[in-house]
Design brief:
alpha/beta, 7-stranded mixed sheet, 6-stranded antiparallel sheet, 15 helices
Length: 572
């Protein structure tokens, strides 16, 4: 169980450190909740000083800062904190509000955030490749970004992923370059070794009391001759095991906001500004000199003496560049936007992992409750969809929730309440999409042609993964927890399997690639993450990935932020 009193104490420290809870109310609440004894005077004083600093900084916003960081997700929290640690004056701007909510801090509630008030509720455009469906793309609109609403999966990706980046023009981004960065930010419960780091800001663990479906999954994988891994990141390779999760020792979510940002909020040179939207970047010639922001008091301009750092994520970073005149110049003119730099690649190269909801099983007997200190996604297997595939390209993901898309429900019936899902996921897609503006109005969301299953390769690999998941579900390892396969629950020919894939596909919530790093004509940033053709502007988040990593992208996004901070500070 979550150490409820310890987590309640941390909640109060979070609130006081952000300046939203005064000392008197803090003392009243700690006494009323019985947690005062858990908080040492040093912790309390640090949080109080940080809160007073943030309150004062917000009340006296400046006209200029050394750096303005746009977006407080995985990368933004790290970049802002580390620049402030180094003495720079930093403004960190976030569209969303506070993360001080139980659905954020309690790992077992993460899926209640998807489609809720902390999600941007963005949808891809309807596509015939998914039977005309408009697939939702989950993105966090809250302090911590995706790290505050996601399933906390910590998956680095294959070494090959990063070596591919280096081959695509990302000098210094090969696996040997990024491995030390991963190790530096991790606090892996298994201890440090050649692959893993310990003692870093972000605690990484596996399920301590796994749901019975998780060991059954792993035993079934063993029976399919899939290698069983003690550590799925050390190194990441073909095999099955318990997933790594970014969850604190006390059982609460280890978001980027809590792990990296909160310790820096006491710096007088760091200002956190929530509920504030980025309207457009400001330029003098081809130099980015500031940003227009929209908050409670309307629109105001803030200058950056050194750089603007865009860390708004796989879609919003491209959106900000496009609405500021960085992108295809002809498209900008058609919308009435004055072009600044003709960078045709902005918004192109969109990638995400299609995930299917999914092969659904009825649990045998009473379904045991899910742990609130785990993520209901406790085991997975990274495998090859076909013997001819050089690298593992699909994942079978256990989900201890019973959920399907509306289209699958219509075709196969409602999933059982006491059910769980084995979800096929395509983790090396060849499909590419594009994000475009539909208006010069910054409040309009724009259009994403996501490209899910738009190549025959991706559709075929996904269909093969459905078969693999159904085969896994039939293994004797599941006999103690599986009563029956309910969905699909019957034999499907190849045409029906393709239709199932199109109707079951959702986004894994990993939008990347729209401001890709490289040297070709469609590249947006160079290997130091500076925007081509522009001075004073970098993009430092998942949007810079030339190709998506093999698995969930949160770990890679943290790494990008940490490496970006090193480059900006000249310590890389």
């Amino acid at each position: 169980m979550i150490e409820a009193r310890a987590e309640a104490a941390q909640h109060l420290l979070d609130r006081m450190a952000r300046g939203t809870l005064g000392r008197r109310d803090f003392l009243k609440l700690t006494a009323a909740m019985g947690v005062a004894a858990l908080l040492g005077p040093e912790q309390t004083e640090q949080a109080w000083a940080a809160g007073q600093t943030q309150l004062a900084n917000r009340q006296t916003l400046k006209d200029s800062y050394d750096y303005v960081v746009v977006g407080a997700g995985a990368a933004g929290c790290i970049v802002a904190a580390r620049l402030a640690d180094a003495g720079a004056e930093v403004l960190l701007v976030e569209s969303g509000g506070s993360d001080d909510l139980p659905q954020v801090t309690t790992p077992g509630l993460w899926f209640t955030n998807i489609g809720g008030p902390l999600d941007w509720k963005f949808r891809a455009a309807p596509s015939r490749d998914v039977n005309g469906r408009a697939v939702p793309i989950a993105m966090g609109r809250v302090l911590g970004g995706g790290t505050s609403i996601n399933a906390m999966l910590w998956v680095r990706g294959l070494a090959q992923d990063y070596d591919d980046w280096a081959r695509q023009g990302g000098d210094g981004w090969g696996f040997s370059d990024v491995l030390p960065v991963f190790r530096e930010i991790e606090d892996w419960e298994g201890g440090a070794n050649a692959w893993r780091g310990a003692g870093g800001p972000l605690h990484i663990r596996t399920a301590h009391t796994p749901h019975p479906s998780a060991p059954a999954f792993i035993e079934a994988a063993r029976q399919m001759d899939i290698p069983i891994l003690d550590d799925m990141n050390g190194p990441m390779r073909t095999g099955a095991g318990y997933v790594n999760m970014s969850i604190n020792r006390d059982g609460s979510r280890a978001s980027a906001a809590r792990a990296f940002l909160r310790p820096a909020l006491g710096h007088a040179n760091l200002t956190l500004l929530l509920d504030t939207d980025a309207v457009r970047l400001l330029f003098t010639g081809s130099r980015c000199t500031g940003i227009a922001l929209h908050g409670a008091d309307g629109i105001r301009s803030v200058a950056a003496r050194r750089e603007i750092i865009v860390t708004a994520g796989g879609i919003a970073s491209a959106k900000l560049l496009l609405q500021s005149g960085i992108g295809d110049a002809d498209d900008a003119r058609r919308l009435g936007i004055a072009p600044i730099v003709n960078l045709k690649g902005v918004g192109h190269n969109f990638q995400d992992h299609p995930l299917l909801f999914g092969v659904t099983l009825r649990y045998k007997g009473k379904f045991p409750p899910r742990s609130m200190t785990s993520d209901a996604v406790e085991a997975a297997a990274l495998v090859h969809s076909d013997a001819g595939v050089r690298s593992p390209d699909v994942m079978m993901v256990l989900q201890q929730v019973s959920v399907v898309t509306p289209e699958i429900r219509a075709a196969f019936g409602a999933p059982p309440e006491n059910g769980f899902v084995i979800s096929p996921a395509l983790v090396r897609p060849t499909s590419r999409g594009r994000y475009q503006l539909t208006s010069a109005d910054w409040r309009q969301p724009g259009r994403l042609d996501a490209g899910f299953l738009s190549t025959r390769h991706d559709l075929d690999a996904t269909v093969r993964c459905i078969d693999l998941c159904r085969d896994l579900a039939r293994q004797h390892g599941f006999d103690s927890v599986r009563e029956a396969e309910v969905i699909p629950g019957r034999s499907l020919d190849q045409a029906a399997l393709r239709d199932f894939a199109r109707n079951a596909t959702i986004s894994f919530g990993h939008p990347v690639g729209t401001c890709k790093m490289g040297t070709d004509d469609m590249a947006v940033v160079d290997s130091t993450l500076r925007v081509h053709g522009v001075e004073g502007l970098r993009v430092c988040d998942s949007s810079i990935m030339p190709s998506i990593v093999t698995g969930p992208t949160s770990a890679a996004s943290h790494m990008i932020g940490a490496k970006a901070a090193q480059m900006i500070l000249g310590t890389a």
